[in-house]
Amino acid sequence: MRIAFVFDDTLDVLDGVQQHIIILGRELARRGHHVEYLVGQSEHSPVPGTHSLARNMMVSFNGNRMRIPVSANRADIRRVLREGDYDILDVQSPYSPMLSGKVLAAAAPSTGVVATYHIAAAGRMAHCCGKLLGTINRHSHRRVDEVVAVSPVAAEYARDTAHVSSTVIANPVDVQRLVRSRETAGAERIAKLHGNGPHVVFIGRFVSRKGARILLDALRWGEHHGVFPAGMHVTLGGKGPLLAECQAQAATLRTPVEFTGFVGEDDKPALLASADAAVFPSTGGESFGIVLLEAIAAGSRVVLAGDNPGYRSTLLNDDDALFPVIRSDRANRTNHAGDPQSSDRNTSREAVLARRITRALVDEPWAEAIHARQSALLQRYDVTTVADQVETVYAKAIADRATASAE
Fold first, then answer.
1. Do the strands 54-61 and 50-52 form a parallel or antiparallel pair, or are they unpaired?
2. Regarding beta strands 302-306 and 322-323, do their DSSP bridges make them parallel or antiparallel, or are they unpaired?
3. Rounded distance, CA 63 to CA 210, Å?
4. For residues 5 and 25, what is the distance between their CA atoms, to the nearest angstrom?
5. Is there a contact between 375 and 293 (Cβ–Cβ < 8 Å)?
6. What pTM, to 2 d.p., does this model score?
7. Are 127 and 63 in contact (CB under 8 A)?
8. How are beta strands 2-7 and 34-39 bridged, if at all?
9. Exposure winner among 58, 180, 339, 381, fewest CB in 10 A?
10. What ranges in 11-59 are assigned the alpha helix state H?
11. Distance of CA 156 to the CA centre of its chain
12. CB atoms < 10 A from the CB of 123, how many?
C-alpha cells in the first residue's frame, strides 16, 4: 500500500502523536508499504518522505503546547496527493480545517481515509472546543471511511465531538528498539544512573497536569512521616514552564533530587532502566499511557501512574500501580507504608503516593508481582501487534472506497 499520515502539527518534536505515526510508519515500511508524511511546518523531520505543507503557530490547548496550521497552499496539497497516488490517508484527529481538512477535500475518490483519534479532553473548555471543531469539520469528516481511537477514552471523545464510532487500536511501542537501546547503554551506564540506594524517576514536561509537583509533595509527606527507605534518591527529567518552581520546591527537601533537563529519545531508555520506581503522576488529559509502556519496556522495576482514564485503561485497571491524583481535603489518615491491608480511602494523594513508592522499594514480592503483570502488557502494545490491526483497518477502508465507487 501507499500510505500517507496526515498531521497538522510538526515532526520537529517527538510528542505522543508524532511518536505514534513515526513508530507505526517505520513498521509499515519494514513490511514493504510505502509511507509518507503530510504535516505542518517541519524543518528537521526524523523520517524520509516528509512533506511540510503549512505555516504553523504555537498555541496552548488541553494542557499542552502545540503548533496549529494557519495557512496551507491548496495547490501544493493537490500536487503532493497527485504525485503520491496514495491508497490510504491516515488523518490524525481531531484535525484542523486549515491543513488536514484541505487534504480531505482534495483526496482522490479511490483513496481510503482513516481518522485516528488521540485526544482526551482535560476540562470543560477543551471539551467544548472539541465539539465546536467537530461541527466545523462535519462536512469534511464525511470523507472518512474508517475511524480508529487509541484508547476507550479517545473513542469516547470521537463519539461525543464527531458523532462517530471507532475501532480501538492502541498506540504502538517499539519494544525491541527500547530493549536494544537499554542493551546499548550497558549495565555500567545504567548502574551509574541508578546510583547508591533506591532510585525514583520521573520523565515528563514540567506543566501542571503532568504532576511533577504532586511527586514533590509526596516526597515532603514521606519525609515528614519517615516512610522512605534509607538512601532513596530521585531524578526528574524534562523541561517546561514549571521547572524553576519545582527546582525551588525540591531544594527544601532532604531527599536528594536531581533535575536532568530535557531527556532525548536515545537517553531515555537508560534512565528508565535505572529506576526502581518510575512515577508518572499525570492528573488528566491523557488518552493513552505511552510513557508507561516505554518505562516498562526499558526495564523500570515498577511503574506507578496517576489514576486518570488514559493511564488506567493502558494498565488494564491495575489498582496496585495506580494512585489518586485529584486532591482530597480529607485528613492524612494512613496506615503504615507497605502494609498490605492499608486502604487509600480517606487519605491525601501525597500520602498515597508516598506510601506506594515506599512499598515499591521495600516490598519485594509485591514489586515483583507488579513487574510481571506490567511486562506481560508489552506484547499487547508492541508495534508488530498494533500494525497487524492497523493493516486490517486500512484494507477495510480501501474496500469501503471500492464499494462506494461501484455504487
1. unpaired
2. parallel
3. 9
4. 8
5. no
6. 0.86
7. no
8. parallel
9. 58
10. 16-30
11. 17
12. 13
* Cβ proximity of 115 and 148 under 8 Å: yes
- Quick check: helix, strand or coil at residue 314? helix
Which of 185, 193, 305 has its CA nearest to residue 258? 193
| Kind plus residue range of the DSSP H or E element containing 366 | helix 364-375
Sign (positive/negative) of CA torsion 4, 45, 182, 204? negative
Q: What is the DSSP letter of 334?
A: -
- Whether the Cβ atoms of residue 114 and residue 303 lie closer than 8 Å to each other: no
Segments in 122-174 forming alpha helices (H):
124-136, 138-141, 152-161
What cell does 32 get?
A: 514493504
Cα–Cα distance measured from residue 164 to residue 171, given in angstroms and rounded to the nearest whole number = 19
pLDDT per residue as tens digits for the range 252-307: 999 999 999 999 988 999 999 999 999 999 998 899 999 999 999 999 999 999 99
What pLDDT is stored for residue 145 in this prediction? 97
Burial-class residue 194 by CB neighbours within 10 Å (0-12, 13-18, 19+). buried
Report the alpha-carbon distance of residue 385 to residue 327 in Å, rounded.
Answer: 37
User: What is d(CA 55, CA 314) in angstroms, rounded to the nearest whole number?
Assistant: 34
Question: What's the grid cell of residue 274?
Answer: 535505572
As a whole number of angstroms, the distance between CA 158 and CA 265 comes to 30
pLDDT of amino acid 304? 98
φ, ψ for residue 287 (rounded to 5)? -85, -20
Residue 347 CA to residue 325 CA, distance in Å, equals 12
Cβ(118)–Cβ(92) below 8 Å: yes
333-355 burial string, b = 16+ CB within 10 Å, else e? ebeebbeeebebeebbbbbbbbb
Residue 96 carries which side chain, given as an amino acid letter?
Answer: S
Secondary structure (H, E, C), 230-266: CCCEEEEECCCCCHHHHHHHHCCCCCCEEEEECCCCC
At which residue does the C-alpha cell 537499554 appear? 182
Chain centroid to Cα 401, Å, comes to: 31
Q: Which three three-digit cell numbers place residue 292?
A: 508507561
Q: Which three cell numbers stand for residue 255?
A: 531527599
Report the SS3 class of residue 389. Answer: helix
User: Tens of pLDDT along 328-370?
Assistant: 544 333 333 444 334 455 579 999 999 999 999 999 999 999 9
Helix (H) or strand (E) holding 109: none
